[in-house]
Amino acid sequence: MLHEDDDGKSDFVSELLGADMLEGAAEGIAKQWLEKGEQSLSPKQLQIFEKYVLEANDPGACKRGCDIPWSEKFEALDNGGWCSYCAHMIDKVMRE
Ligand SMILES: [Zn+2]
Q1: Is-contact 31 7, C-beta < 8 A?
Q2: If you measure from the C-alpha of residue 88 to the centroid of ligand 1, how many angstroms do you get, rounded to a whole number?
Q3: Is 70 in contact with 12 (CB distance < 8 Å)?
Q4: Are 74 and 9 within 8 A, CB to CB?
Q5: Contact 7, 71 (CB under 8 A)
Q6: CB neighbours of 39 closer than 8 A, spacing ≥ 6?
């Protein structure tokens, strides 16, 4: 189940799971978060979720300094840390 109106955070988490990027407790907690929602996690689990699922896999801001929305973070992990707009611009410049 994907959460609505979360700016792509649940997509990001399910992409991490799909790519086998989470292990052990982080994996189980991420699955529970996706299926049952944030309210189902204990404060301790929520801490693990934020630290080992989100923070550990967050590429941070785009290399040009823009914020990367959750919906584009997974792609940024793959393309070296660019938001999709910058990645697109670089791609375009390279081809010209
Ligand atoms: Zn950018």
Answers
A1: no
A2: 9
A3: yes
A4: no
A5: yes
A6: none
